[in-house]
Amino acid sequence: QSLEDCPLDEDEDAFQALGEEDEDIDQFNDDTFGAGAVVAELEDKAGSSREPDGPVGNDGDVLGDPEDALAERLTRLVIDSELEDPAIMQAVHTRDPPQPGGLNSSIWDSSAVLRRIRGPLLAQEMPSVSVLDYALPQRPPQARDEERDPSERALPRRSSSPIIGSPPVRAIPIGTPPKQAAIPNFNQQILCPKPVHIRATMQQRYPAPYGERMSPNQLCNVPNSSLLGHPFPHSVSPVLTHLQRAQLLGGAQVKLLPAGRMSPSQFARVSGLVGSPLPSVNPKLLQGRVGQMMSPAGGFRAFFGAPPAPPPSQLPHPPGPGSHLQNLRPQPQMFRPDTTHLHPQHRRLLHQRQQQNRNQHRSLNGSGGDRGGHRSSHQEQIRKDPYANLMLQREKDWVSKIQMMQLQSTDPYLDDYYYQNYFQKLEKLAAAEEVHGDGPKKERTKLITPQVAKLEHTYKPVQFEGSLGKLTVSSVNNPRKMIDAVVTSRSEDDETKEKQVRDKRRQTLVTIEKTYSLLLDVEDYERRYLLSLEGERPALMGERKQKICDMYDNLRGKAPGQDRPSDDHFMQIMCIRKGKRLVARILPFLAPEQAADVLMATARNLPFLIKKDAQDEVLPCLLRPFSHVLYHLPLGTVTSLVQQLTNLPQSAAAPTNLHLTAVLQNKFGLSLLYLVLSRGEELQSSDTNTELMQDNQWTELMLMATRELLRIPQGALAKPVSIPSNLISLFSRYVDQQKLNLLETKLHLVQGIR
Amino acid sequence: MNYMPGTASLIQDIDKKHLVLLRDGRTLIGYLRSIDQFANLVLHQTVERIHVGKKYGDIPRGIFVVRGENVVLLGEIDLEKESDMPLQQVSIEEILEEQRVEQQAKQESEKLKVQALKERGLSVPRADTLDEY
Known about the structure:
The structure holds two protein chains of two kinds. Chain A contains 30 helices and no strands. Chain A is mainly alpha-helical. Mean pLDDT of chain A is 63; it is low at 1-22, 49-64, 94-214, 224-244, 248-340 and 363-374. In chain B, 25% of the residues lie in helices and 36% in strands. Chain B contains two helices and six strands.
């Protein structure tokens, strides 16, 4: 197979086309694991069977026919071949069935079983070598067709992925010493078979520039590369005898006359497993011969802790290879495996010597030096990190394409709420900055996530003609019920009290969660309103209203026709931390009467709530929404509120006002009381024609309240969140000056006294 | 090329030295060579670093392929800052020994704790038997 078969442009187009196809959402999945991968296999067999090896192709033909006939029969059978479900393989007769190769072709070969792949990428896909082919060195590509067995095809190949670039598996016996003193036989079959699938970059690679140096992944892909039957010396015993060295060198001379090739001995240095130096090979010798040098063996050491490379003098540094091969990103950090543990002084010396050698070398290779001049940074990077760019640009693009696909969403605010909000915040900041500052506009790259329209996929089951019923194939998009799980509801009798309590609590939790979902929807309506069309808006509003009602019902418990009988349900919710927060968030949406109702219920049961809140201390979160609600309440409501809060008037029999005490001793309680009082005062002072009844009620209440406030010891009072300013004027109406002063000091009403 | 600004994509991290923390508590340091969409990592010239107190030891491991779901976090190592670390490197045997000693001490204290609680009639609930409600 040849380098020329590698269409660089086609691949890029194919990738783009791939991105634009939104019907094949599962394309990558297919490519990797499913039908797509298998078809790619077929294509490559088609490619290989085009080879001059005659008999194999013929065999394939014979077998091909009966399978084609089967395919035709199947097509006739299937009525509805327009399967919506891309995850199901269809029986479609492909126009150009690729030749199944070999006698032992497996079922995967059958074109009848495979769906015609619509992606342009695969149609033009390069025939790729299977992983196993690559790893088993002795089998040349031509012989591949002969002994196929299904087990080899067990690995579905990724049609859009290139070959692994690392040196062949067999060639690096990690951790095991070479069994014999391996003499490389350069005439033997290549260890690393000529890769059929050549990566795009190789085309440019071919006219190898003089004085170029290669990293391992490049070596694999250069035809006739020096990965020829070369036993990798590895870390344990890299020592070669004189004889071997001589042979290496001899071999080097024989093999590598064409410029731009690697010598095996150089390749020995490439291997990352050369633990200790190869002192034998004289760099100067190689230099003269080939004009191409490898980076020091030390640079390839596998592990950080290993001793440093051979003394720097032995390590000449070549001018870097043509960097047009590799998509190098500016790397701020230099890869320095050999120098990580050197003393800084030593490192500096090493570096100096490296510089010297580099300069020396430049003078030797004139042309290399020219090229090297303006690419020194790249060269340095490559010199220091020969394993760089194992992951090709194409693979990186592949991964980032998948990541972009994952970001596709029909409703980004639903799928990725936090990111959207965060991004908006950032943009606002940036906009604000731009307005204020007159500095240059910073170019900020934005990630644009593709918006995908929501497609409704309805699954229509496949039907065979002449048969009753539908054939249901279970797939990702149409899952089949595998387990028949029966829900058994318990009877009330055999539950213990604890279980009942627990269940009740769980029910409350469920209610909270449901109400939260409603709340999130309601909060979202504003945004949807802005995005929607005119005609849809009334419907939206209606929905919203309905949801608000539902929320309220959930909060208070469904009243069975009568007025709210008990606060029980509400109390249950309020006992839970999340419930309190929920109420705080819902309050702005409720109608005034409903909100007042909630307030009332809270005030009525405040001591209980306070007790329950002792650990969480979440009640203060309710203050702000409560104050908003208060703003709209009439005096009558406010009065009753105060009544509830203070539990006044009390019956004469009750010695102490525990309710009030509890309220006053709690931060939230006291703050709420102040708020209510303040509101009452506002109403009093502003509204000139209030009803007399109400007025009286209020006044009486105030008198009692102030009396209580005077009574209570200062130490028992909590520290309120805020103290409204009009409390002084409030109290001044009902108490004389002396008592007013007392109140002032006690409650810290006067500004400045804190 | 700025890959996917505003996102956490590993593409920009390729060929750089990283520290990877795994779910089983191991710390790996290696050059990140390849990734995929699951954040499976290929680490090159990997070293497993064991920390005990102010000492650490490195075990060379070679090439690691880590399944993405087992990674807790990973971060790029600043090569310059790496050279001046306040920690002291020791040999592998020593660090393994230290680790063993530390484990033992922890077990001892745990045992004492459980004992003390038992004496007082309390029991430490195991994580799997905790029922929140």
